[in-house]
Design a protein that fits this description.
251 residues, alpha/beta, Elongation Factor Tu (Ef-tu), domain 3, Rossmann fold, five-stranded parallel β-sheet, three-stranded antiparallel β-sheet, 6 helices, 14 strands
Length: 251
C-alpha cells in the first residue's frame, strides 16, 4: 500500500501499487477485487470496486468505509477495522479478481450473469453509501470514452458529510452534463448540524425515481443498483412496481 487518505469521518481512500508499473487492474467497469489481508494465521477478506480509472497503470485505488462495533453490528466490519488500525503504508494486500456478475464493455453494452444484454441507450445508476463505487466506475468509463448513452445517477447518503467522491462525481458531470445527470438524496441530514441542503431528502421511493426521470421499461434501458442489502431490496420493490424485471432491465 502506497497511499492511505481519510475522505470522510469513516471512509479511507487506499492506493495499492502493483509489482509491475505497466500493469492495470484488468477489471471491467462495475467489477470487484476481493482483498485479502493476513494477520498471524487469520485471513480477512472483503470485496471492493476501484475508484481509479479502469486503464490506470501501476496502481489501483479504493474508497473503503470503516464499520466500527455498534448496537446494530456488534462485531463491526472485520476487514475495515483492521484496515484502519493495522494496515499501514508499505504493507502488502493480496488482490483476487475480477469478480462480479455484471460487466460494462462500453458503448452501452453490458453482460449480466454471463448473458449479453441488448445495447443500452439509457442507464440509471442508483447507489447507497459505498455502493457508489461500481456505479461510479460505469459512469466514469462511459463518459470518459464518449459513449453515446444518457446516464442518470441517484446517490443516497445519510448526511452531506457522508457523500463519497463528491469532487470526482462533479468533475465527471462537468465533462458532459447533458449525458451525465447527478442527483443526491439525504436520509438523516440536519441542516443545523451539517449545513443547509437544497437537494432531495429521504429514502429512494417511486416518487423520487419519477423526479430523476425513471424511463419506462424498454430493451435499451438498464438500471444498476448497489448498496446495503435493505437498500437494494427497497429499490427492487420500487422497480418491480414500475414494471421492471430483474436480470432483464436491472441488476
Amino acid at each position: 500500500m502506497i497511499g492511505k487518505e481519510k475522505l470522510t469521518h469513516d471512509v479511507f481512500k487506499i492506493t495499492l501499487e502493483f509489482p509491475n508499473a505497466e500493469w492495470i487492474a484488468g477489471l471491467a467497469p462495475s467489477q470487484h477485487f476481493k482483498l485479502h489481508y493476513k494477520i498471524g494465521e487469520k485471513t480477512v477478506t472483503k470485496m471492493y470496486t476501484p475508484i481509479s480509472l479502469v486503464n490506470q497503470k501501476g496502481t489501483v485505488s479504493f474508497a473503503i468505509k470503516v464499520y466500527r462495533k455498534n448496537e446494530q453490528f456488534p462485531d463491526g466490519g472485520k476487514f475495515t477495522q483492521i484496515l484502519e488500525d493495522n494496515i499501514h503504508i508499505g504493507d502488502s494486500i493480496m488482490c483476487e479478481g475480477p469478480i462480479g456478475k455484471c460487466k460494462y464493455f462500453g458503448n452501452g453494452k453490458f453482460s449480466l450473469m454471463k448473458k449479453e444484454l441488448p445495447q443500452k441507450k439509457k442507464i440509471l445508476l442508483i447507489a447507497g453509501g459505498t455502493g457508489l463505487t461500481p456505479c461510479f466506475s460505469i459512469a466514469q468509463a462511459a463518459i470518459m470514452s464518449g459513449d453515446d448513452i444518457d446516464i442518470s445517477f441517484l446517490f443516497s447518503n445519510k448526511t452531506k458529510d457522508d457523500i463519497l467522491c463528491e469532487n470526482e462525481i462533479d468533475a465527471l458531470n462537468k465533462v458532459n452534463p447533458e449525458k451525465f445527470k447527478v442527483f443526491h438524496t439525504l436520509t438523516r441530514h440536519d441542516d443545523a448540524k451539517h449545513g443547509e441542503w437544497a437537494g432531495l431528502r429521504g429514502r429512494v421511493n417511486k416518487e423520487m425515481l419519477d423526479k430523476v426521470g425513471l424511463p419506462a421499461p424498454a430493451d435499451d434501458v438498464f438500471i444498476f443498483r448497489c448498496g446495503p442489502n435493505a437498500f437494494c431490496a427497497d429499490i427492487k420493490t420500487c422497480l418491480e412496481e414500475n414494471g421492471y424485471i430483474e436480470n432483464v432491465h436491472f441488476n
